[in-house]
Structure formats: C-alpha cells, structure tokens
Amino acid sequence: MADEASLAVHVIGGGLAGAEAAWQLAASAVPVVLHEMRPLRTTAAHKTSALAELVCSNSFRSDDKELNAVGLLHEEMRRLGSLVMRMADANQVPAGIALAVDREGFAAAVTAALAAQPLIDIRREEIASIPPADWDSVIIATGPLTSPALAEAIATLTGEDALSFFDAIAPIVHRDTIDMSRAWLQSRYDKAGPGGSAAAYINCPLTREQYDAFVDALLAGEKVAFHDWETPYFDGCLPIEVMAERGRDTLRHGPMKPFGLTDPHAPDVKPYAVVQLRQDNRLGSLFNMVGFQTKLKHGEQTRIFRTIPGLERAEFARLGGLHRNTFLNAPKLLDGTLRLRAQPRLRFAGQITGCEGYVESAAMGLLAGRFAAAERLGRFLAPPPPTTAHGALLAHITGGHMDSTGSAQPAQARSYQPMNVNFGLFPPLAHALKGEGGARLRGSEKVLAKKRAITRRALADLERWIVGDERAVAAE
Predict the structure, then answer these.
(1) 265 and 202 in one domain?
(2) Do 328 and 161 contact (CB within 8 A), yes or no?
(3) How far is 132 from 122, CA to CA, in rounded Å?
C-alpha cells in the first residue's frame, strides 16, 4: 500500500478556500499537506499568520436562507459540514440580518481546528512555482493575493494574461470614541439577524448640507495614485470616492442610504443620509464603517471621516486601503470539477477562480476538496445540481450560464468577471407560481414567492445530491 505522503493532496494557500478544501479532504480520510507562505512571506493586506484571516469586511453578508442567495449558500455549506461556517457561527457578533464574525476569534478557531486534525500537515513555506510532477493532486487556493512568482508561473502555464482589479478595505473605529449623543443603535427596518439583535448597527446621520460637504471632500481628497492598467474596480467593492464620482446621489442610494432608519435624537426629522458602522469583534470594542472602502490617503481619511456627525473624535484601529486581486479566465481554463484543462492534476479554488466574496470562496474550496477526495479514493463525484447555490456558482465559474433545463450553455470566456452568488445564476423555475386559489402573483409578492421557491428547490436538490454521494460511497 502506498504510504501516506504519496497519497496526500497538496493544498496551496491557507485562506478561506484552502482551509475549507483541506478540511473536506481530511473529513474523507484523505491526508493533506497545507502550504501557507505567511509569516515567511506576507502580503499588503494580511496582518497576522493565522489561517483564514479576514482582510476586508468581517461580514459573511445575509444569513437569510429563504430570501437571499448568499444566505442559501450559508445553509448549503452547513449541511455539507463546512468548517468555515461552523467557526463563523461560533464566533458571530451582532449584525442585524447579516452573519458577521469576530475576525480574530474566527481565524484562531479555524487555525486551531486544522492544526488539531491529524491528517493535515501545515507547512509554512512559499510555493513559488508550479508544483513538481510527483505532486499528482494539487489544489491552488492562493486567492487574490497570489505571490508574484506563483502568479507568473500560472500565467506562463495557462498562456493567459492575468485579469486584475483592486479590492478595498474599510476603516475600523474604536467604539468608545463614537459620540452616541449624535449616533444611535438600530438595524435597518429593525430586523434581527443571526446575532439576535435588531439594534446591531451604529448609525451616524447627515443633513443635506453635511452630505454635500462630505461628497465635496471625498472628491477633492488626496488619493493613492494607480496606473490605468490597474483598474477597473469590481462593482461590488467600489471605493466610496469612485462611487461619489458617478453622481452626487450615488452614496445616499448605496452605503449611505437612510431608508429604514429613524434617529431617536430627532424622530421628526428624516436623515438625508446615514453612515452605518457594524460590530467587528466579539467584545464590541471595534466597529467597521460599512461600505467605506477607500483609496484616500490615510491622513485624508482621518480628516474627512471625522466630519461625519458622531465621528468627530473617532480613533481608527485601522484605516482603509487597497490591494490587488487577480483571477483566472476560469470558463476557458477550468473543467467542471475545477481542474486545469491543460494539466488536470492541478485544481483551483476560491477567489483566484473568479468567484467573489468570503463565502463563495470557501464554498469553492469545499467543492474542490470534495472533488479531489473522491478522485484520490478512486471514484467520481458529480458536480452539485445547478439548481443549488453551489452548483449555480460552479456553473458560472466553469461553464457559463444555464438554460431552463439546467444544461450548460457555452462559456462567455471573453466577458468573464468576478461574481457573488445571486439568484440570477440559478436556472429558472420550471412552473409559473400561483397564489391562493390559483391567483396570479404580482409585484413584490411574486418576487418573494420566486425566491422562496428557488431556495426550497435548492435545498431539496442538495439533499438528493448528498444522499446520492453517500450511497455511492456505501456501495463501494
């Protein structure tokens, strides 16, 4: 029998995708060597040597499994035994309907779980080139901050120019420096989330005059200069000053929207705009400025953000910043199980494949780990149905869109861009939805019914996929 070292699957990168891939492999009794270059070599965004460090927001976004696609992805991952979701649930902090975590506690918990798993060998070393041929099963999950040497090696192997954009980091404020005589606690529309609180956000109101002055300051503020080839930005993570450049009202209809919020200090006056801050650690001592990713220079950030009512004396635990993000032209380069077509011993997972977001990255790590485990054990694992959140996201990455039958259509490799999971990736429902007595649904009622139907179908199809795989394992 081959020894354990020769059977090991190598996972390169200890972020969310790599950590989840390693966990899934070990759960299938497949030995793993997990390579992480930090702290030997760090990045512009990472601050610690912990595995699964969260470098941007501390939010995993909505946890609503019935009406939100990312909430559905959360639930699917939980049912698939996700380490990332288990530790997120264990380290959550109040965030309304969102699932947000104490970032240090979360990363420490993931690191400890992986270190305690006897089938996982964690090696702190940089892999700066394509792995040697005797590594016959490799998952590359190096994320948006892939080291330049490895990125160059991948580009040479694939023959593709790397696509890139910048991911932006929002500032974090010390809670005790926020003036609560100006600000107040409330979740939008008083909705309680998985943290159990309907007052999870600190809200800072602006009048029209204050908002206009703030936008003027953003537009005039000194910014970090970048070359033309270093843009465009990903629309889901635009710097606030870039949003402001798109129109004076863009911010107040985006991260500064006042809807669903009432200022208890002036209940008869509707705020013209609102800045929200979300709890960033379990102690509640740190809050991040929601949607306030920026490329303003640090001195300008401090000056401009202190013009916001309630933040006049704010002290910042971390100021905003930007880092480069690279990803593959995945529909052209990867097959349906995330293997590189040109060299199938190599799989890719996480943001380097062009999925966007913490949860999406971890979900692709989960699938890559399961695909690699099945392959190592001598069997084939069919991809999850495209009607599931995992399957829909995988189809976007590897095979383009789905038609009404769930069949893959030709991949749009030329126009491929990073994507969060969303209901637009799912195949349409087979039957029209009807209300009570067969009445035709309209407006918001129709939208909500459609989302509920898609999520019910997804979870039912996921369960069938899980059971089918379990039966295949049992038969062997």
Answers:
(1) yes
(2) no
(3) 18
Which amino acid makes up residue 18?
A: G
Q: How far apart are CA 215 and CA 166, in angstroms?
A: 22
Residues 239 and 296 in one domain: yes
Which range marks the domain in which residue 208 is found? Answer: 168-324
Q: Are residues 295 and 415 in the same domain?
A: no
Number of domains in the chain: 2
Whole-angstrom Cα distance, residue 473 to residue 201?
46
Which element (helix H / strand E) includes 316?
strand 316-318
Whole-number Å distance between alpha carbons of 96 and 290: 13
Buried b (16+ CB within 10 A) or exposed e, 112-150: ebbeebebbbbeeeebeebbeeebbbbbbbbbbbbbeeb
Distances in Å between the Cα of 102 and the Cα atoms of 16, 107, 237, 318, 361 are 15, 9, 21, 15, 19
Give CA–CA dist 244/259, Å, rounded: 19
70 residue type, one letter:
V
Q: What is the pTM of this model?
A: 0.78
Return the C-alpha torsion angle 43, 238, 225, 216, nearest 10: -140
- Cα separation, 287 vs 318, whole angstroms: 10
* 193-to-91, 96, 105, 315 alpha-carbon distances in Å: 14, 4, 20, 28
Evaluate whether residue 475 is within a structural domain: no
Cα 68 to the center of its chain, rounded Å: 14
Q: Are residues 242 and 350 in the same domain?
A: no
Give the separation between CA 56 and CA 289, rounded to whole angstroms: 11
Q: What is the pLDDT of residues 134-181, one digit of tens each?
A: 999 999 999 877 888 888 888 888 886 655 556 667 899 999 999 999
Is residue 239 domain-resident? yes
pLDDT tens track for 21-63: 999 999 999 999 999 998 888 776 677 889 999 987 899 999 9
DSSP assignment letter at 34: E
What stretches of 248-388 show up as alpha helix (H) in DSSP? Answer: 298-305, 330-333, 358-376
Separation of alpha carbons 250 and 231, rounded Å: 20
CATH code of the domain covering residue 152: 3.50.50.60
Return d(Cα 243, Cα 254) in angstroms, integer.
9
Same domain, 72 and 179: no
